[in-house]
Amino acid sequence: MKLAAIDIGSNAIRFQVSTVLDSSPTLLFKKLEYVRFPLRLGHDVFTTGRISDKSIGKFKKLMTAFKLLVDLYEVDDYMFCATSAMRESENGLALAQQVASELGVTIHIIDGNREAELINRAIHSFLTEKTYLHIDVGGGSTELNLYVKGKKIKTRSFKIGSVRVLERNDSPAMWEDMEHWVKEHIKKSFGKVTAVGTGGNISKIFELAKMKPGKTISRQKVKDIRDMVEGLSLEERIYKLQMNPDRADVIVPASGIYIQVMEWANASSILVPEVGLKDGIMMYLYEKNVSQKKIEF
Fold first, then answer.
1. How many Å apart are CA 250 and CA 259, to the nearest integer?
2. I want to staple 33 with a disulfide (CB 3.0 to 4.6 A). Which of 17, 19, 47, 280 is the partner?
3. In what order do the strands lie in the sheet with 2-8?
């Protein structure tokens, strides 16, 4: 089975094609193609409330290219999902409708809870019976999910993201709301809390920490790396640390969100599975297609 997932985020747009290798009990998604294009829709939306004409032009070209790749790879199923920038923009729905009319592609503009639910599909296999606070920081929003004894008991999306914070479009009231939510729902009876981090910025921090996959990284180490990166100019981050330009400017504000939430939750370490929304979309498509096969007569 070949599947394609397209994650239309606030800082970048990601496209992936994978083939699914099901050799029970292991399910392997083998990557065939991956493209990350730095189209920062959040810059337009969080500043003016609209996607600019220039960005619309680029966006349509990108969707055309991705639809061609979907056709060339002859995938069995695919899904285009858009998150906070498109769902908050005045013209996001109209743009999705134009793409549907011109390319025959449906862009699902999903809310924060649906976004969290899809990402949870990707991280579930990394969790045990412990208490976890999953922190997913995007360009426009942060999704928090609380797991106790293997079950998700609370979820919430906040309009705080790396691009918003970078461009000072975040609200102090939203920060207070997030702090209240964390402190209200994490009980002492839950025991030690381990954070789980998803998003490109925490993955880059994990890489800079030279950690082995599956290991946790301490909150202090995340702070140390944040401080080291903050001490470098944008050019130094790009050339010395091999960051993309659109990663180099948001990694410090994004790090601050992870650190702050961990402090509120009293989580001293964070697990970084290096999966995200596109992986959750893949899992959703696989489960949907397998269940359909099972009920065929």
1. 14
2. 17
3. 26-37, 13-23, 2-8, 77-82, 107-109
| Alpha-helical segments (H) within 162-250 | 162-166, 172-185, 200-208, 219-230, 234-240, 245-248
The full DSSP string for 48-62 is HSS--HHHHHHHHHH
* AA letter at 129: E
Is the confidence at residue 295, as pLDDT, over 70?
no
Query: Strands 13-23 and 2-8, how do they pair?
Result: antiparallel
Q: How far is CA 285 from CA 41, 101, 102, 241, 245, in A?
A: 26, 23, 24, 35, 32
- pLDDT at residue 297 tops 80: no
In the prediction, which pLDDT does 277 show?
A: 94
Contact 85, 11 (CB under 8 A): no
Helix/strand/coil percentages in the chain, nearest 5? 50, 25, 25
Place domain 2-112+278-294 in its CATH homologous superfamily: ATPase, nucleotide binding domain (3.30.420.40)
Which ranges in the chain belong to alpha helices (H)? Answer: 41-48, 53-72, 84-88, 92-103, 112-123, 162-166, 172-185, 200-208, 219-230, 234-240, 245-248, 251-265, 277-294
| Residue 8, token pair as written in the block | 């239309």
Q: Where are the domains of the chain?
A: 2-112+278-294, 127-276
Q: Which of 70, 23, 63 has the alpha carbon at shortest distance from 41? A: 63
Indicate the pTM of the whole model.
0.91
Q: Integer distance in angstroms from the first to the last C-alpha of the chain?
A: 20
Instruction: Please state whether the peptide bond connecting residue 253 to the residue before it is cis, i.e. omega within 30 degrees of 0.
Output: no
Structure tokens at 188: 């002492």
Q: Quick: pLDDT tens for 71-111.
A: 999 999 999 999 999 999 999 999 999 999 999 999 999 99
d(CA 281, CA 121): 8
